[in-house]
Amino acid sequence: MATSPNMQRSNDADSVEALHRLVLTSLEDDQAVETVSIPLAGKSSIADYMVIASGRSTRQVASMAMKLADKIKAEQGRTPRVEGLPAADWVLIDAGDVIVHLFRPEVRSFYNLERMWSFEGQA
What is the pTM of this model? Predict the structure, then answer.
């Protein structure tokens, strides 16, 4: 599994949903742009949800990532793994059951993760 030693996956569906709501609420509060949540449960073993959002600048991306990591630690007792913070073009936050990708719009458009992780039309 691709999670860090501190980020164990939860077997409790309520805990997973609480974490997912926390992520979405935090991003909304920080005025994230074009937030998309992709359910992965039963489709991938890496997480139950992947959340993708954009910030308008590297400063906003970095701020959203730091606030989200702090909220996850304070409210869920988990210390998420954060990668990409120094450049803040693309920041990955691995919270175990929920993986969050925060992008600058140009970088998000280039990588197009939504299309890559689309399971439409698959059985």
Answer: 0.86
- Residue 35's nearest CA partner among 50, 13, 48, 57 is 50
Nearest to 31 by CA among 2, 4, 63, 8: 63
CATH match for 31-117 among 3.40.250.10, 3.30.460.10, 2.20.25.10, 3.40.50.2300: 3.30.460.10
Could you tell me if 97 and 49 are in contact, meaning their C-beta atoms sit under 8 angstroms apart? yes
DSSP assignment of 8-41 = PPPS-HHHHHHHHHHHHHHHHHTT-EEEEEEE-T
Tell me the pLDDT tens digit for each residue of 20-33. 999 999 999 999 99
Span 9-60, pLDDT tens digits: 556 889 999 999 999 999 999 999 999 999 998 888 899 999 999 999 999 9
H-type alpha helices, the chain:
13-29, 58-76, 105-111, 113-116
